[in-house]
């Protein structure tokens, strides 16, 4: 509490007083933190332009050269096998295999200068899902309380739901590459801030949520009575006083119990209320129906929905897997892209953006389409592209961002940022800012040290 009071006391500090203080701590604050406080004083209350976020995580790393940053004039061995095509936005070209997507580019902002240094899926995935660089670029990186929480956890902490509807949802997969990728849960913020996790397939005709269904013959009132009895027993055994893990489970249980009584949430998950025409438009795939479910969830009041493209990075199959394209040895150039990735994207992404726009939801719903990195501009001997975090593209739409706009640029071969470089930290800061949350707000980590939600800078140029 004292740290919070100290932070408030510094809000009126001028830059001159900060410079006089130099590198010395004032009220226990470092110079960067005092600068953050001064910025907060100039903008004491942010207005939320994005009431909701749909974060479409493209696990495996999509190639920017085969999607939204094509280099048709690059030498053979760099340029892809697909031609670029014009779009509804002046000056923006996309892959010729994305004709429907090309028609909604006047709704989006492309960031073509995203970059970092993490070459392994798990470390890069953690960076993408939290906006914080991992301590090392290690494929064996595992979820520990020392790592930062997922966006979903931060949103649940900073923008808690005022109803039975959860503030954040993660669906339909928990992603992994050998081991579970860290950064998908609330970490040091505590288990009560974990997202509501949905791992059933929304495309399954039998899709239902047992989490929201009471056992046969058990009423909500009876379940609540059982919970009161359990709390009394826990109190008598002093379990809750001695077990932080139990405290977390208790908080999570309370939230789950509240959701069980939510007619609004049960209806949001009922995809049978959508017409066959709408469900067909999104695509009868797990990803397509998950994106439709995400739209229904933000309509119901969920503030942050993460939709993962696939549970695995991909491989040599053309019928399942994420955006990884290693080792096909196929002169058609990554058949999984042509037969799976791009067709699913072409079906679902423009449908989601158009649906949100026609319903009047896009202006207040931020859609983010991004992977953990891009692919190497140079095609390898196996006729594929390898991991490339040094320059790739993110797509943003709605939620207070510009339409038909490009921020940043890659160099002539798509290898490195040539203009306005952006890090995942900056993207995180921008998302928080658009949601009305100061990205420099401090929380306390597992060692009770104050840390900001983001170390990045807001990308003001993409904000409308």
TrEMBL record:
<dbReference type="InterPro" id="IPR010869">
    <property type="entry name" value="DUF1501"/>
</dbReference>
<protein>
    <submittedName>
        <fullName>DUF1501 domain-containing protein</fullName>
    </submittedName>
</protein>
<dbReference type="InterPro" id="IPR017850">
    <property type="entry name" value="Alkaline_phosphatase_core_sf"/>
</dbReference>
<dbReference type="Pfam" id="PF07394">
    <property type="entry name" value="DUF1501"/>
</dbReference>
């Amino acid at each position: 509490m004292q740290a919070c009071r100290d932070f408030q006391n510094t809000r009126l500090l001028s830059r001159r007083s900060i410079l006089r203080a130099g590198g010395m701590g004032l009220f226990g604050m470092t110079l960067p933190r005092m600068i953050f406080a001064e910025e907060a004083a100039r903008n004491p209350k942010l207005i939320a332009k994005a009431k909701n976020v749909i974060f479409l995580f493209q696990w495996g790393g999509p190639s920017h050269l085969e999607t939204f940053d094509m280099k048709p004039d690059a030498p053979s061995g760099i340029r892809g096998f697909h031609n670029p095509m014009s779009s509804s936005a002046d000056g923006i070209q996309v892959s010729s295999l994305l004709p429907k997507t090309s028609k909604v580019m006047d709704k989006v902002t492309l960031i073509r200068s995203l970059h970092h240094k993490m070459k392994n899926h798990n470390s890069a995935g953690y960076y993408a899902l939290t906006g914080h660089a991992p301590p090392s670029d290690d494929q064996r990186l595992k979820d520990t309380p020392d790592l930062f929480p997922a966006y979903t956890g931060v949103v649940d902490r900073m923008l808690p739901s005022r109803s039975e509807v959860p503030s954040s949802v993660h669906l339909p997969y928990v992603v992994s590459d050998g081991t579970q990728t860290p950064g998908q849960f609330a970490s040091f913020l505590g288990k009560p801030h974990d997202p509501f996790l949905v791992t059933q397939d929304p495309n399954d005709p039998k899709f239902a949520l047992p989490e929201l269904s009471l056992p046969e013959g058990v009423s909500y009132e009876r379940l609540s009575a059982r919970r009161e009895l359990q709390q009394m027993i826990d109190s008598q055994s002093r379990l809750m006083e001695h077990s932080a893990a139990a405290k977390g489970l208790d908080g999570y249980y309370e939230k789950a119990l509240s959701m069980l009584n939510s007619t609004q949430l049960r209806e949001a998950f009922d995809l049978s209320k959508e017409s066959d025409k709408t469900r067909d438009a999104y695509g009868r795939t797990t990803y397509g129906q998950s994106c439709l479910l995400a739209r229904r969830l933000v309509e119901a009041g969920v503030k942050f929905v993460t939709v993962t493209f696939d549970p695995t990075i991909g491989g040599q199959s053309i019928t399942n897997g994420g955006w990884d394209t290693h080792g096909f040895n196929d002169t058609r150039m990554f058949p999984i892209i042509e037969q799976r990735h791009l067709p699913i994207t072409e079906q679902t992404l423009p449908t989601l953006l158009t649906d949100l726009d026609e319903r009047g939801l896009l202006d207040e719903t931020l859609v983010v389409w991004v992977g953990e990195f891009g692919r190497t501009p140079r095609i390898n001997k196996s006729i594929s592209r390898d991991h490339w975090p040094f320059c790739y593209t993110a797509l943003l739409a709605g939620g207070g961002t510009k339409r038909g706009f490009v921020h940043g640029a890659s160099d002539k071969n798509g290898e490195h940022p040539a203009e306005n470089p952006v890090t995942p930290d900056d993207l995180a800061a921008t998302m928080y800012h658009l949601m009305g949350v100061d990205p420099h707000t401090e929380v306390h980590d597992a060692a009770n040290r104050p840390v900001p939600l983001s170390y990045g800078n807001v990308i003001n140029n993409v904000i409308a």
